[in-house]
Amino acid sequence: MMIVSILGLGGTILAVSLKLVESNAPIAAVGLFLANLQLMGYDLFAEAVYSRRLASVPESGPALVSYVWAGNQLFGLFATLLVGFVVNYADGVWGLGGAQWAVLTTIFTSSTVIVPAWLNFFEESRATKEQARAHRQHLWSDQRAVAILSVVVGVTAVGYSVVNLAAQSNTVSFVTAILTVILLTGSSFAVMKPVIGKLILFNAVSQGSIISVGGPSIYFFTNDEQQYPAGPHFSDIF
User: Fold this and answer.
1) For a surface tag, which of 21, 162, 188, 236 has the fewest beta carbons within 10 Å of its beta carbon?
2) What is the pLDDT of residues 74-113, one digit of tens each?
3) How far apart are CA 97 and CA 217, in angstroms?
């Protein structure tokens, strides 16, 4: 967790420190990738911890899951309410744009995880070489399909990101995305149980068919009424 914390904080600072020009977009994408890596790492470790708690005290499972997800939703709502004011009123402070301040504010919350991780509040024990070797053998012998699929997903995700950064073409991105979906769903059917493969296929189709309304929000971060006199008809705070 310390490693993803350092990578995420470094990526956030990198993205914020760049000037808002098109030539810096690939570097900013790398910084935001590291920031999202930190977020996903926190989510993974947190789920591992409370899954272990669920196994030890199953009767308290509903209360624990409700507590975790209530916190996620409440703080997510608070962040949604806050970001508009930050973009609107922090623009130009210390030479940074409103969007940069919106990203910079995440440092104060994400860095607080370093202290409990350093003090081992997650009660992680150091594994010996023999224990680590036995665990790897267990994964490879009993969960080989999951291990192979995890490697395929990781390599595909990194490859897709590199292609998007290098190509800078919507057509290439679209074709790569379709090929990625075909590769991952095919790999799932090949190494997982059929019912799990069908579930992954359903999830891929449902996610691909969703019309996202989050894309136009980029206008709030990069343009104003001077660039788009007729739209998008919403304030930054909204």
Assistant:
1) 21
2) 888 888 888 888 877 877 777 777 777 878 888 787 777 7
3) 15
